[in-house]
Structure formats: structure tokens, C-alpha cells
Design a protein that fits this description.
It contains 22 helices and 18 strands. It has 645 residues and is of the alpha/beta class. A 6-stranded mixed β-sheet has the order 5-6-7-3-8-9, with helices on both faces. A 6-stranded mixed β-sheet has the order 14-15-16-12-17-18, sandwiched between helices. β8 and β9 form a beta hairpin. It is globular, with a radius of gyration of 30 Å. About 2% of the residues have low confidence.
């Protein structure tokens, strides 16, 4: 479907992509991986046609449509959410308007025998048929289902898009792209602003569609659930593996170990041959053997070991000044926006040196509580910071607040003071902005590079309370591990707002669960918390927290009494399998109904009416549809039964 041929991209003498080639086939789902700044987003822009290569080309058939979700986008602020997302069906809306106009014209025409009237009738019939096959009457339901799946409430549908934050605007654009059903989806970090419930919905959506996909993400579980091929960009070149991400990691390690062993064996052989040549080069009795060895040496195809990008983020927080024993104390805290209560009766006490996590569904108040601690918004109740508390704050939109016209060096030089200014080059080098990279403009940096640049601000002065709101967004997997190690070694206190279970594992000793207007404390790490809740993952937590209390609480108590953890996992597995089968059945029914409609058109012609084989195929297909409908009905009954258990 898409062919990338000898593609090269150069910036001021630096080669970002060096003659890379690959083909994206139908139904392939590719994970595009590599360190931040390796060229992943650039490659997506090239395929989408938003950027031109220095050399090479991207080829695709004209009829292949592409849907591209960048890391940052602009929406029309005056449209409502529903109006913006409905643009995915804009071509159908234009067809409906044209059909209405044609019907009005037919009512006024009386020249029934004219050629123009016949053409008008033909155009009307064609439009009706196209709209019927496209099932446009259900597009509004599809819009609502997609928006709800991505976390929107029905009350959000009529709000202007300008009222939403960058993360929610990304969801609006994602909904529009998904509903457009392009042949090829290009998604650049789609999970960065999604809560885990929405990530799970997106996984199911992508897995049940027939689109080809190229996905950039640093969410390991998401990649494994969605993709079946992995292309790694490293030092300008690509390594292509026809497997999921986790399997690719294993194969890459095995491949390099094999290359290293083969390389070492070959080097040993070469050294022995060269030593023989050197030893007997001037002995006449050995001249034939020497010449033979020289020719043998010339014919050896030298083994190369894949280059490894050794550039590593080196992050270490400065020693934390000593604070009071309890950096944060909260009693009976409440926050309202008008009549809406975000949370109430919140009580928590964070000790010096503790690392704690805030988890829960988006919109339940995690970032709101952080803003209360920061003193950015008012509240009722008691919130006290301990003696000598100095806060280092990393907000979700920190990277977006950078001045794009400044260079990397200027961005840090503008805020650095005192002796720190003499160490700016060293700090930038530790964050992989050494040498010429420090002179890059912010506007050309990738999302991960911007996050690293924003993170440097935390190092400019010693702090003893780190508050990190989704710090791993845009960071590659290697950088996430380095950040995790740095926070673990930090001798101060840390509050981490995150949906990344792997990042939190082994890092935090206490979890605060946000949901239903409450904040509940859980002692222990993230997996201790999940085990106590008898949940397979945070997805189940967020589904439970989004249910009304009258439904979720009795259900969880009943689950504790009736089912073991393994039984709950088995039940969830059955439900997911049924959901997949229902989706496949619906796709089959839709496809067969389209075939049936096409046959009906053929049977309506004189030739088709006399075609007995066509008639028999038509009757057989109707029976197949009926059987498939019966099967679909049974599956829906089964899934409802399991969901009630």
C-alpha cells in the first residue's frame, strides 16, 4: 500500500535518515521505535506528505487514503466537539445535501422524456445507492460511541473545542481520524494524553479494524496489543522485524549476540591468516601457500555488528535540602467548580522521603490536587506544606510552554542564575544536548527532546519535593528507565501522577486512588495495590471508578465473595474474546449486505433477471446473512450474561 524507497533526510549537514526503504502492506500494523530525535515523527510526516525528503520518495496508489495524527495539532475553536468530529463524514453530508437539492428539482420538472431528466434520475439513484451502502443514518451513533470510548461525556458534545486542553483536543482529532476509516493510519504518540480506560478502548478499536497502521508510542503494553511488526530507527538506518515489540526486543538482543560471536570468530581467523602471511611472505617454499592465503583473505566478506546508539540520558537530581518530617499534610480538603464537586473530605499525609503515586481516571482530580498543593487554585479545608519545603514541579504541558524561537542553550540561559550558569553546557550534555545540539531551535525539537529540555529546569536549583505530572509523556523507553532510576535515588519526596504501571513499579511505596469524588490511600507499591483490588491492571480500576457507586461497590464486594483473582481474569478473557467475535460478525454481516445490495441491482436488469445462477447465489447469501445474524444475537446474549456475573 505504501512504499518507502531510498529515503534520506538531512538537516544542515546532519543525516537524520539515510537511504531507508521498506513497504507497508495491507493490514500490517507497524510499531515505529527508536530513541527521541531518531526521526520517527519525521518519517510519519514524510509518509503523510507534510514534509519532503532530501532524497528518495514515498509511493502509494492514488486511491489509498491516509489518516495522520501528529503530536500537536490545531482545531477550529468555534466548532462544537460533535461538529468537529462529524467532519469525518463531511463528504456524506455533502452527498445528502445534493440529494435533497435533486429531489426538489425533480418535483419542479415536467420534461419527463428529456435526456437531462433521465440523467437527473440516474444521479439521484446513484446517490441514494451510495448513501444506502455507506449506512450514513448511523454515523451520528458512531460519532457518539467513539467520543464516549475516548473519555468524553455527553455534556461535552456541544461544548466548543476551544474550551478543551491540548490533551482533549488531541482526542477530538483522533476521533475524527478513526471515524474517517482511512486505509493507512499514522499515529504519533496517541496514548500520551489518554487514561488507561481510553487506551484499552483504542486498543480494541484498532485491533478490530482492517486499516494498515504505523504507530509511534513508548507504551510497551499498547504496542504489544496492537502491532505485529516492528521497525527500529537507529543512527539513520532501520532494522525491520516481522514481530511484536516484546519479541523484537528479544530478537534484537539475540541477533547482536550472534553477530558479535561471528565477528569475533572471523577476526580470529583473519588475524591467524595475516600472521601466516607475514611469517612466510619471504620464503620461496611457501610462496604458493602465501598467495593462496592472500586471495582467501581478499574474498572474506567482512561481518559487521549493528551499531548501537550509545548516547544516554544522564540524569541525577541535586541533593535535597532537608525539609520537615511531613512535606504535605491535607485534612478535609474539598474542591468544587460551581455545583460540580471534584473531590471532598480528602485526608493524606506524605512523609519526608516517600515516593507516592496518584492514579485514577482522567478528570477525577489528580492534577487538581497537585494545583492545590502548588497554590495555583483555591479550595476549602486544610492543606499545609512542611518546614523548608521547596517544590520542583513538572506539569503535563510544560514542554508546550517553551518559546519555539529560542535555542536550547538560550532556553536554559534565560532562567539560570548564579553559579549554575557556568554549568549549563555540562547539564545540556547530560541531557543529550551536547555540542551543536545546544544551538537547535526549540521548534525543531521532537516531543521527547522538548520534555527533556523542560526537565532541565528541575535541576537549576535544589528542591526537596518533586511533583511530576505525567513525566514520561514523549520520553522513549530508555529515557523512562533513566528518569525512574533518578527519582528512585532522589533523597527528597516525590509525588508522581502517572498511568504508566511499568514506570511506577518498584518506584512508589504508597498509592492514592482518585475516583468518585474520593481519594483513597493504599500502602505498598503499585502491584500490591492492584493485587488488593483483585484487578488485572489499572484498566479495571478505572472502569470500576467510572461506574456509579451503587453499581460498582456491591459488585466488587460480590466479586470478593464469589470469585478468585484467577477466575476474574478468566471471565475478563472470555468477555474480550466475545467482544472480538461480535465485532467480526458485525463486519461479516456488513460485507455480505453490501454484496446482497450489489446482486439486487444486477437482478433488477433484464440480463440479471434471467440469470438463474445469480438468483441462486442471491438466495444462498440471504440464508448466510440470516445464520450470521442468529449467531450474532447469541453472542450478544452470551456477553450480557458474562457481564452480569
Amino acid at each position: 500500500m505504501v512504499s518507502v524507497e531510498n529515503l534520506s533526510v538531512e538537516f544542515g549537514g546532519f543525516t537524520l535518515l539515510d537511504e531507508i526503504s521498506f513497504v507497508l502492506n495491507k493490514n500490517e500494523r507497524v510499531a515505529l521505535v527508536g530513541k527521541n530525535g531518531a526521526g520517527k515523527s519525521t518519517l510519519l510526516k514524510l509518509i503523510a506528505g507534510y514534509q519532503q525528503p532530501t532524497k528518495g520518495c514515498v509511493s502509494r496508489p492514488k486511491e489509498v487514503s491516509i489518516g495522520y495524527l501528529p503530536q500537536q495539532m490545531k482545531l477550529e475553536n468555534t466548532r462544537t466537539v460533535v461538529d468537529e468530529v462529524s467532519l469525518a463524514f463531511d463528504h456524506f453530508m455533502k452527498m445528502e445535501k445534493e440529494l435533497e437539492q435533486l429531489h426538489r428539482e425533480l418535483e419542479l420538472r415536467t420534461d419527463y422524456e428529456s435526456e437531462s431528466y433521465r440523467l437527473l434520475i440516474q444521479r439521484t439513484a446513484d446517490l441514494q445507492e451510495l448513501l444506502l451502502m455507506s449506512d450514513t443514518h448511523s454515523f451520528q451513533a458512531e460519532v457518539e460511541k467513539t467520543l464516549i470510548g475516548l473519555g468524553f461525556k455527553r455534556s461535552d458534545f456541544t461544548r466548543p473545542t476551544g474550551e478543551f486542553s491540548g490533551g482533549w483536543r488531541m482526542r477530538i482529532e483522533l476521533a475524527k481520524i478513526l471515524l474517517g476509516s482511512p486505509d493507512v493510519l499514522l499515529l504519533d504518540e496517541p496514548t500520551n494524553h489518554l487514561d488507561i480506560e481510553s487506551i484499552q478502548w483504542l486498543e480494541n478499536f484498532l485491533s478490530s479494524r482492517g486499516n494498515s497502521l504505523i504507530l509511534v508510542s513508548h507504551d510497551r503494553a499498547f504496542l504489544d496489543a496492537v502491532t505485529n511488526r516492528t521497525i527500529e530507527i537507529m543512527l539513520g538506518h532501520i532494522h525491520d522485524y516481522k514481530v511484536s515489540y516484546s519479541k523484537y526486543v528479544e530478537l534484537r538482543k539475540e541477533r547482536r549476540e550472534q553477530q558479535q560471536r561471528a565477528y569475533e570468530n572471523q577476526q580470529k581467523q583473519i588475524q591467524e591468516t595475516e600472521a601466516f602471511i607475514e611469517r612466510f611472505r619471504y620464503k620461496a617454499t611457501k610462496s604458493n601457500q602465501v598467495q593462496s592465503r592472500i586471495k582467501q583473505l581478499e574474498k572474506i566478506e567482512r561481518i559487521e555488528v549493528d551499531e548501537i546508539d550509545t548516547a544516554r540520558l544522564n540524569l541525577k537530581f541535586p541533593p535535597a535540602p532537608r525539609s520537615g518530617s511531613f512535606p504535605v499534610t491535607v485534612e478535609k480538603l474539598e474542591k468544587k467548580y460551581g455545583d460540580h464537586t471534584v473531590f471532598s473530605h480528602v485526608n493524606l499525609m506524605i512523609r519526608r522521603g516517600e515516593k507516592v503515586a496518584f492514579v485514577g481516571k482522567n478528570g477525577e482530580g489528580k492534577s487538581t490536587l497537585v494545583k492545590c498543593i502548588m497554590g495555583e487554585i483555591d479550595f476549602t479545608g486544610k492543606l499545609e506544606l512542611g518546614h523548608n519545603v521547596r517544590i520542583g514541579y513538572f506539569a503535563q504541558n510544560q514542554a508546550q510552554l517553551l518559546d519555539e524561537t529560542r535555542t536550547v542553550f538560550e532556553t536554559i540561559d534565560d532562567v539560570a542564575t548564579g553559579d549554575v550558569r557556568t554549568k549549563i553546557r555540562d547539564i545540556l550534555g547530560a541531557f543529550m544536548f551536547g555540542g551543536e545540539a545546544s544551538e537547535k531551535k526549540v521548534k525543531v525539537l521532537s516531543g521527547g527532546e522538548r520534555s527533556r529540555l523542560a526537565m532541565i529546569r528541575l535541576l537549576l536549583e535544589p528542591v526537596n519535593l518533586l511533583i511530576l505530572d505525567e513525566p514520561t509523556n514523549h520520553l522513549d523507553m530508555a529515557s523512562k528507565e533513566v528518569l525512574k532510576k533518578a527519582i528512585s535515588e532522589f533523597d527528597g519526596t516525590a509525588i508522581i501522577v502517572s498511568h504508566d504501571r511499568d514506570f511506577l513499579n518498584g518506584l512508589v511505596s504508597k498509592v492514592y486512588e482518585f475516583g468518585g469524588g474520593k481519594v483513597t490511600e493504599h500502602l505498598g507499591g503499585i502491584y500490591d495495590f492492584l493485587s488488593k483490588k483483585k484487578l488485572e491492571n489499572l484498566q479495571e480500576l478505572e472502569i470500576a471508578s467510572s461506574m456509579p457507586a451503587s453499581e460498582s461497590e456491591p459488585a466488587s464486594l460480590e466479586s470478593d465473595n464469589k470469585r478468585s483473582y484467577q477466575e476474574q481474569k478468566d471471565l475478563n478473557r472470555k468477555i474480550r474474546k466475545l467482544e472480538k467475535e461480535i465485532g467480526e460478525a458485525e463486519n461479516d454481516i456488513s460485507r455480505m449486505e453490501n454484496q446482497l445490495s450489489s446482486m439486487e441491482q444486477q437482478l433488477a436488469t433484464p440480463e440479471g433477471a434471467s440469470d438463474t445462477a445469480l438468483l441462486q447465489s442471491y438466495l444462498d447469501l440471504k440464508q448466510k446473512i440470516e445464520r450470521k445474524m442468529n449467531s450474532w444475537e447469541q453472542l450478544t446474549l452470551d456477553i450480557e450474561k458474562y457481564r452480569k456475573e
